[in-house]
Amino acid sequence: MTENAWRSARLALGTASALGLGRFAYGLVLPAMSDQLGWNLTQAGAMTTANGFGYLVGAMTTAAVSRRIGTAATFRLGMVLCAVALAATAASGEYPALLAARALAGFAGALVFVAGAVMTPTIVYFAGTGLGIALSGAALPLLLDQHPERWPLAWAGLAAAGGLAAAVSWTAARPPETSASNTHTAAGHRLWAVAVAYLLFAAGYITYITFLSAYLADRHATTTQTTLTWTLLGVAVMAAPALWQRHIARRPGGRLLAVLLGVIAATAALPLLAPAQPVVMTSALVYGATFMAVPAAVTALVGAATPPERLTGTMAVFTAVFAAGQTAGPWLAGALADHTTPGAALGWTAVLCGLGALLSATTVTPRSSPAVKERAIEPANRTI
Fold this sequence. Notes:
By secondary structure, the chain is mostly helical. It has helices spanning about 5-10, 15-25, 25-35, 40-70, 70-90, 95-120, 125, 130-145, 150-170, 190-220, 225-250, 255-275, 275-290, 295-305, 310-340, 345-365, 370-380. Helix 11 (about 225-250) runs parallel beside helix 13.
């Protein structure tokens, strides 16, 4: 493994911790917490909404924090805060305290996500999320099976994993490199349409992974089935670079974004059309192989149309748009599911991502010059 590849792998622990552990593992602990704390699906969704709100605040402040302490230090700060937030989630069963801990995890996640995306803007970085999902999926259902009272122990374990990730990635965080070839830019992409599609994706995708375990529980899935489903999902996320990296590097346009969102929409609808366990696992597998490619594709689109000196700020704006969507999505989908069935959350994902696919296919058009295309390709190849 080359030095750059090893550095990318260590930085990918950022998304593993901030997203895989800090955000998505909640879906695995949710059934146990709901059972022990007496939550309905609206209250459960509000926890993810709090996480999304923290992420929104973090996205709005990341550029200022980065200007003050630097991109690398911002990444490290976010990693430490993420581990602290996970530990805080294990410390209390009081609803307001848990809301605050989830919000802190979201804030920390935004710092990590934006800073890391600037330092290594490739799908390899985003695919690190899969490691956190796979590890959580392999361990948490077994820990919590028939013992929902162990949910604080689950969060303590996630906190320990987050602390280890912070330590291993610490020296990999370095200021991003710039070069003379990266000074040319053009506003070739319709970034407003990209932002709207990203908003729809954010509000839609998060509900699938938040309520997947609740859906499985409603279908009386066994612990083995839940573990296998989540582990497959995480492994698929890690495999995503092999499927999408070349396409994202060479074609950062609306057609690719539309394909990704269309696949997610169809994948989310699968369990509703045929709720058999093999179909659900296939849905999780394809979903995992696709959903983290969307932030990578959006990053490529933004990078191709933004000067290097404005990239951190522009990425922060897009992360704020993303955060707004995932703040509202879980609460609204949870309320819908309370009045219908847990499967409605998957339908929510299908509809919103389908709309995003339609918008991307009809509105987001790449009109970049060759120099801009070179900018989109170069960062992706730099860390392979």
